[in-house]
Amino acid sequence: MLEAKMQAELSNLSLQGFKFALDEHALVSITNPEGKITYVNEKFCNVSKYSPEELLGKDHRIINSGHHPKEFFHGLWKNLKNKEVWRGEIKNRAKDGSYYWVQSTIVPLLDLDGNPNQFIAIRTDITEQKKLPELSP
């Protein structure tokens, strides 16, 4: 019994450490199957300039920059609904109207029946890299 409790505490500490490391590096959000935001980390809020209260329950259209065609997002959602990881760059709009770019990886999390029940998006802010002129060979 004591060993099981110690193992559970160790697992919890490992998850806390993992979450801390991830939050230090990335913008993280979680959505439900309908695309409504159920979680955002502090870095997501700092970059988007929205508070958690302004984001929770909304979908990601709140940060849509209008840069990408509808087909771009249809393809993204098709991948996710097919239980596939999606990777790509997205240009978003912050609350103050400024734009920012993120390199995104979106992973469908499956329920016990194998159906997507959450989507976790892990993003890196690449705005500064996108501002750099491309180097010619």
Automatic annotation (TrEMBL):
It comes from the Bacteria. Residues 28-71 form the PAS domain. InterPro entries: DGC-Regulatory_Protein, PAC, PAS, PAS-assoc_C, PAS-like_dom_sf. Residues 86-137 form the PAC domain. CDD domains: PAS (cd00130). This is PAS domain-containing protein.
